[in-house]
């Protein structure tokens, strides 16, 4: 795009934001006046009577009211199109009981910053920004329309005009020959045009000043974001460990209750057949046939259990072919909807977990939902710049619905696994169906994605 066209586009975008900027700036004066009057009055009354019983509640009220005004300021800035300001992590009472809950604002720095913003900083900045914006708009509009409405005003008693003064300053003795009204109209019009042309920059700058101050005083501290991230990582790690533990216990239980019992029975049948082989060949053949049946059933159960692990097709051909193979083996008819862009390369570990989630969801549907069909949908979801995106896996069945998480079983195990991967799992299963399980898994930052 040429530089001139790019400048026009940027200027047009600034002008489109002027109504929202003015929607923030023009109501600022009454808001800050009310805020400083209420908060300053409460704080002064509370502080001056702090030695009395009534002083402390009034002081606390000033902190709570300041918080309310701060929240309104943040909401107004976001309504004006400014970037979202992270909300503070309001401190919870460290002690127990009602007293700790009531007095907790006194120990929270955010409350005091909100009070300082409402009672001191915002009134100063707000009055200045309101004055500048109001004067800029009214003078600009008044200047460009002076030629129209001045005809209904009385002429000032002077025989000179503003244009002659300006021209005479640069060229002494020069006279334009225009009347007082004509000369003034030209000067006012030029000044009005200049003010209106620069109005988008003024409003954008004033609102940006408010936003910068609010972000520093009303937003969350950087350490709070780091603490929340560390807490989230610790929670994810605990969930991952719990999910692996649950999966191992389930695997142990499935092997013990299924193939292991059949192999023990087969071993007993083979031992009995060996003892009767010489004396009763017919009975021995019957025992051998039973042992063969036990071996076949044990093999089928081992295959069913192994579906929770990565099959060779997943490692050789990728996620979608593995899901299609899984759908073909599903006890209920299932189909796969592939919304991945061609050429997308996903990490092997991410594919393995997505395959496991799909396999477990289809197994749950076959066991508990009385479904007659299912659908597995896989797609990539774009996110704001700075993140690689999300892999979204959705399994839908037309069963009777009513599915709920049960500890250490089915959906609860899926939730733990997804949380351990840093993703989210949502379940929609109204009575009568359908049941929709949606797992959203974060992509690593280095995931290769083809261009659109």
Give a topology summary.
Blueprint lengths: L2 H14 L1 H8 L2 H21 L6 H25 L18 H6 L5 H36 L1 H4 L12 H9 L9 H38 L4 H36 L1 H18 L4 H26 L5 H6 L1 H11 L4 E5 L9 H21 L5 E8 L8 E8 L12 H11 L3 E5 L6 E8 L10
Parallel strand pairs: 1-2
Antiparallel strand pairs: 2-3, 3-5, 4-5
Molecular structure report:
It is a single chain. This protein has 16 helices and five strands. The radius of gyration is 37 Å and the shape is elongated. The chain is 64% helix and 8% strand. The protein has helices at 3-16, 18-25, 28-48, 55-79, 98-103, 109-144, 146-149, 162-170, 180-217, 222-257, 259-276, 281-306, 312-317, 319-329, 348-368, 410-420; strands at residues 334-338, 374-381, 390-397, 424-428, 435-442. It is an alpha+beta fold and 452 residues long. The two termini are 20 Å apart. It has three domains: 1-220, no CATH class; 231-306; 313-442, Histidine kinase-like ATPase, C-terminal domain (Heat Shock Protein 90). Strand 2 (374-381) and strand 3 form a beta hairpin.
């Amino acid at each position: 795009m040429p530089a001139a066209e790019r400048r026009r586009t940027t200027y047009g975008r600034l002008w489109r934001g002027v109504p929202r900027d003015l929607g923030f700036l023009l109501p600022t004066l009454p808001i800050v006046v009310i805020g400083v009057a209420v908060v300053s009055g409460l704080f002064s009354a509370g502080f001056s009577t702090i030695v009395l019983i009534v002083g402390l509640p009034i002081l606390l009220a000033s902190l709570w009211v300041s918080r309310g005004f701060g929240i309104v300021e943040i909401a107004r800035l976001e309504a004006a199109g400014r970037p979202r300001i992270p909300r503070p992590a309001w401190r919870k009472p460290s002690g127990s009981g009602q007293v700790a809950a009531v007095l907790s604002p006194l120990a929270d720095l955010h409350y005091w910053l909100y009070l300082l913003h409402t009672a001191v900083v915002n009134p100063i900045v707000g009055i200045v920004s309101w004055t500048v914006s109001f004067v800029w708009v009214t003078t600009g509009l008044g200047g460009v329309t002076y030629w129209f409405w001045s005809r209904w005003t009385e002429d000032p008693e002077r025989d000179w005009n503003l244009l002659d003064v300006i021209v005479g300053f640069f060229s002494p003795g020069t006279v334009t020959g225009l009347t007082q009204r004509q000369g003034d109209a030209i000067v006012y019009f030029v000044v009005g045009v200049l003010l209106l042309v620069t109005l988008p920059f003024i409003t954008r700058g004033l609102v940006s000043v408010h936003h910068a101050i609010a972000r520093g005083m009303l937003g969350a501290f950087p350490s709070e974001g780091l603490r929340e991230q560390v807490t989230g990582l610790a929670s994810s790690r605990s969930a991952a460990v719990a999910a692996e533990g649950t999966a191992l216990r389930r695997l142990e239980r499935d092997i013990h209750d299924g193939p292991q019992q059949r192999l023990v029975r087969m071993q007993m049948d083979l031992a009995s057949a060996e003892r009767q082989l010489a004396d009763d060949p017919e009975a021995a053949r019957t025992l051998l046939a039973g042992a063969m049946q036990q071996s076949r059933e044990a093999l089928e159960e081992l295959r069913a259990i192994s579906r929770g692990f990565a099959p060779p097709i997943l490692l050789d051909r990728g996620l979608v072919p593995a899901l299609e193979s899984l759908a073909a083996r599903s006890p209920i008819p299932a189909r796969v909807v592939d919304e991945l862009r061609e050429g997308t390369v996903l990490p092997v570990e991410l594919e393995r977990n997505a395959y496991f989630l799909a396999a477990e969801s289809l197994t749950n549907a076959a066991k508990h939902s009385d479904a007659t069909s299912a659908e597995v949908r896989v797609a990539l979801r774009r996110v704001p710049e700075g993140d690689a995106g999300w892999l979204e896996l959705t399994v839908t069945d037309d069963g009777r619905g009513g599915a709920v998480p049960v500890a250490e079983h089915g959906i609860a195990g899926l939730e733990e696994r997804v949380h351990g991967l840093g993703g989210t799992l949502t379940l929609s299963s109204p009575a009568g169906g359908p049941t929709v399980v949606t797992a959203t898994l974060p992509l690593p930052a280095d995931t290769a994605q083809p261009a659109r």
